[in-house]
Design goal:
- The complex is a heterotrimer of chains A (198), B (621) and C (350).
- Chain A is an all-alpha fold.
- Chain B is built from 18 helices and 2 strands.
- Chain B has a two-stranded antiparallel sheet.
- In chain B, strand 1 and strand 2 form a beta hairpin.
- In chain B, helix 4 runs antiparallel to helix 6, helix 7 packs parallel to helix 9 and helix 10 runs antiparallel to helix 11.
- Chain C has 350 residues and is of the alpha+beta class.
- Chain C has a domain of 97 residues: Sandwich (Immunoglobulin-like).
- Chain C is built from 8 helices and 12 strands.
- In chain C, a hairpin with a 2-residue loop joins strand 1 and strand 2.
- In chain C, helix 2 runs antiparallel to helix 3.
- Chain C starts with a helix and ends with a helix.
- In chain C, 44% of the residues are buried.
- Classes of the chains: A mainly alpha (198), B mainly alpha (621), C alpha+beta (350).
- Chains in contact: A-B, B-C.
- The interface between B and C is large, with 113 and 105 residues.
Chain lengths: 198, 621, 350
């Protein structure tokens, strides 16, 4: 049973939403602008390479990136399952799904790292061109967001395994779930605008 | 002050419990104390920024030659850059934050903000960000590329200065972003029962709008700053023209933040003035709904005018037209507010106390700044005005004559509430008159100098240009302003030392903060108030007679004032914590690490993560 | 008091003045077009100022609480009709101002065409100005010549920076080209070409200055525009393309010319050449330093910041960075004799 929305002092809130949930939604609002600026920079610079250099879209491996996108999508599913688990009081399942989500996230990150080392070997780096700077800053920050998410998921799992994550803390799982889904949605936008659209 | 002691679950380290002494200031999570920390810190930065201004005016008091200037070019470029950075990011913004912090919970009838430890974290990050930027003076060069840091000068310049700028502003921006989440949640979620949005004091509305502006504009600046940092440290190409980077991208990103930022700077002062004018006119704010909607409209349209800072960069006639028109449009809601303030005073019974004088001064100076702003919107005229002292005049009229005057109005108005003491009225008025005279002497002539062809950001000017007289007048005016600040400081010290004790409601005011003692107890309200109307306190004190004039409510029914001898038993307040400060310390460490050695990055990350985990795991009570 | 002084000053300034770099002293059609837009707007703003500030001052003084005065005013909450009035009227005033504003934006943006038009390419460097006349094949620096009464179509760029061979390097940054008496300013952005039209009504010298902060010596980046008759302009262009006559043998000028090609100092024992950065050929552009063809006839040196006197020139040759912070040109350690000779040579370049 989810705890009733309350402030730290257990007073009713004007919206009926818990302060912390409202805070996460508010923060994600600003993150939209954060990634918006990164994506805009990339769209402006996507073909900006010196004479004779390749533009990014020529070295993408779309099938490969599609697979890692699918992995990230699946991690959102496991996240939903984790939240459902704590909501019905099944803490063991919660931990399993949390770790799964984190693991899928790590697979995604590894995939990105591998993809980027390929690019770098082809001479496409953050320094080699303006397009390169824009591409790696955007994907790099997204990867950093995923990494922070993984850290938070593993922290939750650890707290749960030491008995410190109780029913009362359902909201925390929900908040981190919100964050994780947001990062996933940002990836869908990036994948579409950066990789798929020519 | 009684703090409820609750047996703690065995955990290490123990949460601090003390609320007195030096350490208690490091661990406080009380919004009122954090407000004072912001206010005092901002004031110290104001003195530093003011000294920088005096140095500039000394350098420009008389014409000279390039090799005989008072301040050499390198020093001057650092001084004018730091003057701008200081006044915008380390003075006006945190002064606004000081008021948001102290007043918002009181005005909405809450005990604290939504996230008290996050609130403390914001303050420490702000302080450390400011110190980081200033450390440039000791570490090889302070920022020297202008407060607006235009690329590609900022991305390619030698010396560490603009790296301190890029990283330091990032840190300060983080503080404001985190605070904006806090205040948005507080205002939306924690209003006292009965306080609908349209019953909120205007200051709270302005706080809400400002924090939304910060929430959406700071991320854009953050990206620009990251790009600048990467260009400088790791030689990426975002603004590097040799590789095909576009310096104009920086301007777009900066001003997409920068224009909403100027509304961040002015709206708190407008909110304060909207509180002060009614109290000292003994009439409600004229056109409350109009003022609120105008404020929200200004915030919204403020995201659509940014390129009016870029009229001369070659965007093209169509873009210039579009932004010229949007800039003209934003003058309309601004005018609405001014007329409503006039309407508040009209047919009132005015008491020209110090806070009232500063509020009236605000309106009068802001009208001038607003009118010169309209002349900038006449785009071809701006082709002459931009990058000259005419622009310097405009923004000082709105930021100093506007924001600073409004903030001083708030300082004097709420001084009795913050300190429990009255200040000396005569010294207050002396401060006002010296300041308004000095201010107009300093910045009025700059309109003329700009039209007469004097560009900005030059460390000297030459004889034979016809600029000698007004530059001298301006420099003298600056020193008069300095004297007025000294008068304020004397008044402040005297008041704190031996000022008359202040009652709960010394001004016969209108809003909830005046129902509790001066200074307020830690828990603010003994009982969370129930709100029945806008200007709740006024309606408890006065009803309206048949003519619509205030008539005191029958005594006895008036007994809503809190007991002075402190109720508040059984209220759980959030305990102090040192984790916010601890975590905050990690951030500048990371910054120095990026500039000097990776080991500092590691140290910073470890500190930050330890701080965050400690914060998360410490018991709530 | 101060407010009144500033106000009066402002009103006076709305008139004309005779200052050399003032936008209130227009001397060409573009500047006059801007002035014709600004001045009426200014007077409208002044009117609004008097009305609004007057009302505020009046209210502040008239409605003070006084003995015998009603201390409990009617608690008026607002007036919807007033709100509408003071929303609509400012909007109408702004709409009225917007019409000529937009017209002028487009008028100024139009590129002049026709045989009359003089084409100039201005390339900004840290901290000097390169002027190229592509149709005439002429290149000069820091002092721009133009014929009176003919539109000049100016293309504005910011330099790609060549290697300097000395310890300092200029970086490509944003500058801004501004001659207030002739027109508004336009930025010079690396990687872009901006455009500006200027024209002078009368012969004369008009002062210009960089108006976008561009680094250490931003304040020292000035230029002059010489508006002359058509004949004088053609004569100047022809002279720039001519090779300067060789100085008399054995004269100090000849010695200077030789040193200009190659000099040796303690700091440069293997020899160095002024030609590494400069040229005296009035048809060559793209150098590290200003083109010095016709240097002797220039009014100023150092990009408009010092009078072009013998004393100043010698001081410059001795230690440029003492006179202009951050200048790329270093102190080469030239001896007094070498400086005298070089100065004589440079001053002979008419």
């Amino acid at each position: 049973m989810a705890a009733e929305p309350h402030t730290a002092e257990h007073l009713p809130t004007a919206t009926g939403l818990d302060n912390r949930k409202l805070a996460m939604w508010t923060f994600l609002g600003s993150e939209c602008l954060f990634f918006g600026a990164l994506i805009s920079t990339f769209l402006l610079y996507r073909k900006n390479v010196p004479e004779g250099e390749i533009i990014p879209s020529e070295i993408y491996d779309i099938p490969y990136t599609s697979v890692s996108s699918f992995v990230l999508l699946m991690s959102s599913l496991t996240m939903v399952l984790a939240l459902a688990a704590i909501q019905r009081g099944d803490h063991r399942q919660l931990r399993i799904w949390l770790v799964c989500t984190a693991a899928l996230g790590m697979v995604f990150i590894s995939g990105q790292v591998f993809e980027f080392t390929e690019f770098i070997e082809h001479g496409f780096t953050i320094r080699s061109s303006v397009a390169g700077s824009a591409f790696f800053l955007l994907t790099g920050f997204h990867g950093a967001h995923v990494t922070v998410g993984i850290l938070m998921l593993l922290t939750l799992a650890m707290l749960s395994s030491t008995g410190r994550l109780t029913q009362e803390h359902t909201l925390r799982v929900e908040m981190i779930g919100l964050y994780w889904h947001f990062v996933d949605i940002v990836w869908i936008v990036i994948f579409t605008l950066v990789y798929l659209i020519p | 002050m009684a703090v409820v002691a609750v047996p703690q679950r065995r955990s290490w380290p123990r949460r601090p419990t003390t609320t007195t002494g030096f350490v208690s200031w490091l661990t406080t999570v009380d919004h009122k104390r954090i407000g004072i920390l912001y206010g005092v810190t901002a004031f110290v930065f104001m003195l530093i920024g003011g000294i920088e201004a005096l140095l500039i005016r000394l350098a420009l008091a008389r014409p000279t030659t390039p090799d005989a200037a008072l301040l050499d070019a390198d020093t001057y470029n650092q001084i004018f850059t730091m003057h701008g950075v200081t006044m915008v990011f380390l003075v006006v913004m945190p002064l606004g934050a000081a008021f948001f912090n102290y007043m918002t919970p009181l005005l909405i009838g809450a005990r604290d903000v939504a996230f008290p430890r996050l609130n403390a974290f914001s303050y420490w990050v702000f302080l450390l960000g400011g110190l980081f930027i200033y450390s440039g003076f000791l570490l090889g060069g302070a920022p020297d590329g202008g407060w607006f840091g235009y690329a590609s000068l900022s991305s390619l310049s030698e010396g560490p200065g603009m790296t301190f700028y890029a990283i330091g502003l990032q840190i300060a921006g983080l503080a404001s972003l985190v605070a904006s989440v806090n205040f948005i949640v507080t205002i939306i979620n924690m209003r006292a029962p009965g306080m609908s949005l349209m019953r909120m004091p205007v200051f709270v509305w302005m706080t809400l709008v400002v924090n939304f502006l910060l929430l959406f504009s700071l991320p854009i600046l953050a990206i620009g700053l990251f790009q600048l940092t990467f260009d400088r440290i790791w030689l990426t190409n975002f603004f590097n023209p040799t590789m095909g980077g576009d310096p104009i991208l920086w301007q777009h990103l900066f001003w997409l933040f920068g224009h909403p930022e100027v509304y961040v700077l002015i709206l708190p002062a407008m909110g304060i003035v909207s509180e002060v004018l009614p109290v000292f006119s003994r009439k409600p704010l004229f056109g409350y709904a109009a003022v609120v909607f105008a404020g929200a409209a200004i915030g919204f349209i403020g995201f659509g005018v940014w390129a009016h800072h870029m009229f001369a960069t070659g965007l093209g006639a169509i873009a210039n037209t579009a932004f010229g028109i949007s800039t003209m449009i934003i003058a309309v809601p601004t005018g609405i507010k001014i007329f409503n303030w006039l309407g508040t005073m009209w047919k009132g019974a005015l008491r020209l106390t110090t806070p009232m004088l500063f509020s009236i001064g605000f309106v009068m100076m802001f009208v001038i700044g607003g009118l010169s702003g309209v002349t900038h919107a006449v785009v071809p005229a701006d082709y002459q005005q931009t990058d000259t002292y005419y622009i310097v005049a405009h923004f000082h009229y709105v930021l100093f004559g506007g924001a600073i005057f409004g903030l001083f109005s708030g300082i004097y108005y709420w001084w009795p509430k913050f300190t429990g003491r009255m200040f000396n009225e005569r010294l207050g008025k002396l401060h006002f008159w010296l300041m308004i005279i000095g201010f107009n002497m300093t910045f009025g002539p700059m309109h003329i100098l700009g039209l007469q062809g004097m560009p900005r950001r030059q460390y000297f000017f030459s004889p034979g240009q016809g600029w000698d007289f007004w530059n001298l007048v301006s420099s003298i005016g600056a020193f008069i302003i300095a004297v007025s600040i000294l008068v304020f400081m004397v008044n402040a010290v005297r008041s704190l030392a031996k000022g008359k004790a202040a009652e709960a409601d010394p001004w016969d005011a209108r809003t909830l903060e005046w129902t509790i003692p001066s200074p307020p107890p830690a828990h603010n309200f003994d009982e969370v108030p129930t709100v029945h109307a806008r200007d709740e306190l006024w309606h408890r004190k006065y009803a309206e007679d048949t003519e619509g004039r205030p008539a005191p409510v029958v005594a006895g029914a008036q007994d809503h004032h809190q007991e002075e001898h402190g109720g508040g038993h059984g209220i759980h307040l959030p305990l102090p914590s040192f984790w916010p400060l601890f975590a905050a310390l990690g951030i500048p460490l990371i910054g120095y690490g990026l500039m000097y050695h990776w080991s500092l990055i590691v140290a910073g990350v470890v500190t930050l993560l330890t701080g965050l985990y400690g914060w998360m795991l410490e018991p709530l009570e | 008091m101060g407010l009144l002084a500033a106000l009066l000053g402002l009103l006076l300034a709305a008139c004309r003045d005779t200052l050399p770099q003032s936008s209130l002293n227009p001397a060409g059609p573009q500047a006059r077009e801007i002035d014709a837009l600004f001045v009426p707007v200014f007077w409208i703003a002044a009117g609004v100022f008097v009305f609004v500030e007057g009302a505020i001052l009046f209210a502040a003084l008239w409605f003070r609480r006084r003995k015998g005065r009603q201390a409990n005013p009617v608690q008026t909450h607002g007036n919807t009709r007033l709100e509408i009035v003071w929303t609509v009227i400012p909007a109408v005033i702004l709409a009225v101002i917007a019409v000529p504003t937009v017209r002028t934006i487009f008028a100024l943006a139009e590129e002049p065409v026709g045989p009359d038009v003089v084409q100039v390419r201005v390339i900004a460097h840290q901290w000097w100005w390169e002027f190229e006349y592509p149709e005439l094949g002429v290149v000069t620096a820091n002092e721009m010549h133009m014929p009176v009464g003919r539109p000049v179509n100016i293309r504005l760029e910011s330099a790609e920076v060549p290697e300097s061979g000395v310890d300092r390097k200029a970086i490509p940054v944003i500058h801004s080209f501004w001659v207030p008496r002739l027109g508004g300013k336009q930025d010079m952005v690396p990687g872009r070409v901006n455009r500006l039209t200027l024209e002078a009504d009368e012969p004369g010298t008009y002062l210009g200055q960089c108006a976008e902060f561009c680094g250490l010596s931003h304040a020292n980046m000035r230029f002059r525009v010489h508006a002359v008759t058509d004949q004088e302009f053609d004569a100047w262009a022809a002279e720039m393309k001519e090779e300067a006559p060789a100085p008399a043998e054995g004269s100090p000028e000849a010695e200077g010319a030789a040193l200009f090609q190659q000099f040796t100092t303690g700091a440069y024992p293997d020899g160095f050449s002024c030609l590494a950065c400069h040229t005296v050929d009035g048809t060559v552009g793209g150098q590290v330093g200003p083109n010095l063809a016709g240097f002797g006839s220039r009014q100023t040196l150092g990009a408009g910041i010092y009078d072009n006197t013998e004393a100043n020139l010698k001081r410059w040759l001795d230690d440029p960075r003492a006179m202009k912070p951050g200048a790329i040109m270093p102190d080469y350690g030239l001896s007094e004799d070498q400086i005298d000779a070089l100065a004589a040579y440079l001053r002979s370049l008419e």
